Amino acid sequence: MFWDRVIETLERAALARLQLERLQTTAARVAARVPFYQRQLAARHVTPDHIRSLDDLRRLPFTTNADLRANYPEGLLAVDRRDVARLHTSSGTTGKPKALFFSRRDLDAAAELVARCFVMTGATADDVLQNMMTYGLFTGALMLHYGAEKVGLMVIPAGPGNSDRQLMLMQDFGTTIIHVTPSYALYFADLLEKRGLRPCRDLTLRKAYVGAEPYTEETRHKIEQGLGVDVYNCYGLSEMNGPGVAFECGQKHGLHVWEDNFLLEIIDPETSEPVSDGQPGELVLTTLNREAMPLLRYRTRDITALIPEPCPCGRTHRRIQRITGRADDMLIVRGVNVYPQQIERVLMGIPAVGRNYLITLDGLDDMSVQVELAESGFDGQVEHLVNLQNQIIERLRAETLVKPKVELVPPGALPVSEGKAKRVVDRRRL
Ligand code: ADP
Ligand code: ZN
User: Fold this and answer.
1) In the chain, % of residues over pLDDT 90
2) For range 113-131, the mean pLDDT
3) Is residue 289 classed exposed, middle or buried when 0-12, 13-18 and 19+ CB atoms within 10 A define those classes?
4) Do residues 204 and 296 share a domain?
5) Which residues is 230 bridged to in the sheet?
6) 415 lies in which domain range?
7) Which ligand 1 atom sits nearest the alpha carbon of residue 93?
8) pTM higher than 0.70 for the full model?
9) Are both 174 and 286 inside the same structural domain?
C-alpha cells in the first residue's frame, strides 16, 4: 500500500531531476534571504547558478549543530516572521536548544511524509494510534500526530509516562499502534509482565513505531516479544522535521529516506569526504522542500550506512541502515574506543538480562555497568547470579576490549526517563 504511489515509486532518473530542481530552488532561496548562507557561499565563491547537477552539491557549505546554535534564535529564518506557522526546538539532549521554524506549507509537507510512513507500514483509518512521545517543543509527538490524522487514524495524544493511564487508554480505546522510545517501550513491557498481562490476550496492539534513540536488533526483538507487536524503526531529527524523515517498510530491513524531500549523503566524519556505498559514515541531509528554514548539508552526526540495493517493496527512495549512534557518542575508556551500542547489543542478547542498564565511568577511568535482571532472571541461587555476572563481564570484554565492573540489580531498580534515555553517566568530566 502506498500513500503517494507516484512519488514513492518514481524512477531514479525522474527523482534525480526533481531533486536537482529543488536543490536549485533551495540554494536560490537561502542565497537571497539568509545572511549566514550568503556569507558561506561568498567565502566559497559559489552562487546558486553554479548548481547545475546534483554533484554540485559538494560545492555548497556544510551546516553544523554549532551553526544552528550560533544563529539562534532567528538567524537562519528564510521567510518573514508572519509566514511562520510553528516553532519547535530540539529536545536539547546535547546543550542549548536550536530553534526550528516551519511555515504552513512546511508543516503540510512534513505531515505528508509521515502519512507515507503510516501507509507504508500497513496502517489504515481503522487503526488507533497512542502517541507516547513528548508533546510540546520537541518535534517527536506533534509531527507524527498530524501525519496520522491525515491518514485518518484515531489519535490518542497520550504523551509519555503515567503508565497506568497508558494501559487504561490502550484497553478502553483499543490502541493498535504506539509511537514510543525504545527505553519506554521496554519499561512498559516490564510493567505488563509485572501485572500478569499478556499483550496478545489482554491488549489489541499490533505495531510500534520506535525511535528517537538508537537501539539494536536485539532490543527490537525484546520489544516485539514483550508487547506482542511488529516494531518499525522510525528516524528523524528536529532539524529535518522530526519523525518521518526515514522509516522502515514491511521488509524491516533498512529505513527509506524520503529523497524527494531530503538529499542524502554519507561522509567520513573526520575527513568530510563521501564514503563508498554501504560503508558506515555520518548522515548529511539537505532539505529540498522547505520554505521557512532550509538547511544545506546538515551534519546530523548520526552514524549509518547506505543500502544501495533496491527494496523489494517497490519504493525507489533509498534505504539506510539503522542508526548505530552519534559520531560523538563514542566513549574513550582507558584509551579504548567504546560505543554504548556495543554494550547494549551484548546485554539485550542475554535472556536473563532485563530491559534497562546504566553505564558509569568514574574518576579512575573505570567503566561499570549496572544491569537489571529479567523478572524471571533470578531463581534464588546465588551461584547462578555469580555465573551470570561473570558471563556478562566476559562478553562485554570480548566485545569492547575493556573489562567492566558489572552489578546486577533487580528489575525496575534503575531510573527511567520520560524523554530520551540517559544510558551513560560520565563522572570523569565533572
Ligand atoms: P536532540 O538532538 O536534542 O536529541 P532531536 O529530538 O531532534 O534532538 O533528536 C534527534 C536525534 O535522535 C537524531 O539525530 C538521532 O541521534 C536520534 N534518533 C532519532 N530517531 C532515531 C532512531 N530511529 N534510531 C536512532 N537514533 C535516532
Ligand atoms: Zn521498502
Assistant:
1) 89
2) 98
3) buried
4) yes
5) 207
6) 330-429
7) 3
8) yes
9) yes
**Which residue has 547494549 as its cell numbers?**
344
Q: Which atom of ligand 1 is closest in space to residue 326's alpha carbon?
A: 16
308 neighbors 278 (Cβ within 8 angstroms):
yes
Distance 283 CA to ligand 1 centre (A): 12
Residue 8 CA: which ligand is closest? 2
Tell whether 413 and 309 lie within a shared domain.
no
Please give the pLDDT value at position 430. Answer: 57
What's residue 47's pLDDT?
98
Does 341 share its domain with 277? no
Looking at residue 330, what is its pLDDT? Answer: 85
Q: Which helix (H) or strand (E) holds 194?
A: helix 182-194
* Residue 163, burial from CB neighbour count under 10 angstroms (0-12, 13-18, 19+): middle
- 6 plus 154 within the same structural domain: yes
The pLDDT assigned to 318 comes to: 98
Cβ atoms of 207 and 144 closer than 8 Å: no
In a shared domain, residues 240 and 345: no
Q: In testing the pocket of ligand 1, which one of 235, 418, 423 has its CB within 8 Å of the most ligand atoms?
A: 235
Instruction: Work out the mean pLDDT of the chain and round it to a whole number.
Output: 95
**How far apart (Å, rounded) are the C-alpha atoms in residues 382 and 398?**
25
Place of cell 522510525: 234
Ligand 2 centroid from CA 114, angstroms: 15
Q: Above 70 in pLDDT, residue 91?
A: no
Q: Which of 312, 329, 346 is the last residue in one of the domains? A: 329
Largest CA distance in the chain: 73
Question: 121 and 229: one domain?
Answer: yes
Ligand 1 site, residue 93, Cβ cutoff 6 A: yes
Write out the three cell numbers for 365: 577511568
Measured distance CA(143)–CA(127) in Å, rounded:
18
> Which ligand has an atom closest to residue 313 CA?
2
Same domain for 311 and 399? no
- The distance of Cα 82 from the centroid of its chain, to the nearest Å, equals 31
Kind of pairing between the strands at 319-320 and 298-307 = antiparallel
Measured in Å, residue 186 CA sits from the centre of ligand 2 at 26
Three cell numbers written together for 130: 497512542
Residue ending a domain, choose from 300, 329, 358: 329
Per-residue model confidence as pLDDT tens digits over 140-157: 999 999 999 999 999 999
